[in-house]
Amino acid sequence: MKLVHFSDLHIDTPFASSEPSLARKRRQRLRDVLRRITSLAVDAGAEALLCGGDLYEHDRFSADTGEFLRESFAQLAPMPVYLAPGNHDWLGPTSLYRTIRWTPNVFIFQHDRLEPVSLADGLTLWGAAHCAPANTDGFLKGFTVDRGGIHLALFHGSERGSFPAQGGGKIPHAPFDASDLERCGIHHAFLGHYHTPHDAQRFTYPGNPEPLTFGESGQRGPVVITIQQDGTVIRDRRQLAITELHEEVVDIAGCSNQQEVRERVASALQALRGIVRITLEGELGSDVDLRVEDLEEKPSDVEQLLIRLGDIEIGYDFQALATEPTVRGQFVKDVLANSALADEERRRILVTGLRALAGREDLEVP
């Protein structure tokens, strides 16, 4: 059997870091990507389309969102569409899952426990829904399959062993361990929640199919799944994203004036398009008047350019300055002698004070 699995589209995401017209354009692209996914399901000859949750944003959807989703899945009929609500599109009284008159080919899992549907003789899909935006218990807790054959699962949950880097920033929802799948008789689980794509022996996270924020990595997008007779899977990942997001670090060490910094930023942008975030790093000459707002001129292929200051040092020789028989020298000498100051605080005071004594307006220290 062949399936297409996706998750974490997050239709109606606000994209607060983009200016309003670009944010609207990016929200439209989320809908365009869903059209690409449904077309992929048809073109790949899939026998069902699966969504592992966070299809849309519960707090921001409109009636238009509901009609768009209803019509998109209706076009696939009679191909079945299986939806497992997540924590962002949780199944509540006002949820689109309850208020839309879905076509008969759409099946929405309704309970916060695994329930079965038959995909074919000897092939069962177990699915569950988040019925609240938080505090959903693990769906595999206390669960065991109650019939023979091959068993698949579809839900929105947090596998606890594969994403240690996300542990502090991604709230666990419906947590489970990979070993739970074998224990309870699930041959493979199709999941949502983590935006980082991951292929494990018994589970698949497709990742969000359209970029949502900086810091995302990996080949993300819908996965064409072929189910083998023994329950193992063959995965074919497809990238259908419209927006390009890029992160670049630009070394500005040695730049003696702002124009040199601008030229290094422009060089980094030459091969890029879409939405770009640049982090500036390096040691700057003390006379450089570095202002981020003066660097944000972007080429036509770049929709949005964000520039931030990273690990930047100002190239003052404080020890040499402290020997000067001047007000400036005495200031530096006094600050260096103040043992109550931490190193970073001392540096900021010195740089800010030296800039003020020089009559500069750019007193903020990166």
Question: Can you characterise this structure?
Answer:
This protein is an alpha/beta fold. It has two domains: 2-237, Purple Acid Phosphatase, chain A, domain 2; 245-357, no CATH class. 24% of the residues lie in helices and 23% in strands. The protein has eight helices and 15 strands. The protein has a six-stranded mixed beta sheet, covered by helices on one side. Strand 5 (115-120) and strand 6 form a beta hairpin. The longest helix is centred in the N-terminal third of the chain and has 24 residues, at 20-43. The radius of gyration is 27 Å and the shape is elongated.
Q: Could you estimate the helical fraction of the residues in percent? A: 10-25%
- CATH fold naming of the largest domain: Purple Acid Phosphatase, chain A, domain 2
Distance N terminus to C terminus?
56 Å
Quickly give the structural class: alpha/beta
Summary keywords:
elongated; Purple Acid Phosphatase, chain A, domain 2; 6-stranded mixed β-sheet; alpha/beta; 366 residues
What does this entry show, briefly?
This protein has 8 helices and 15 strands. The protein is α/β, with parallel strands linked by helices and 366 residues long. Helix 2 links the parallel strand 2 and strand 3 (81-83).
How are the SSEs ordered, and which strands pair?
Elements: E1 2-6, H1 20-43, E2 48-51, H2 63-74, E3 81-83, H3 96-99, E4 106-108, E5 115-120, E6 123-127, E7 150-156, H4 178-184, E8 188-192, E9 198-199, E10 203-205, E11 223-227, E12 233-237, E13 245-251, H5 258-269, E14 274-284, E15 302-314, H6 318-321, H7 327-337, H8 343-357
Parallel strand pairs: 1-2, 2-3, 3-4, 6-7, 7-8, 8-10, 13-14, 14-15
Antiparallel strand pairs: 1-11, 5-6, 9-10, 11-12
Helix pairs in contact: 7-8
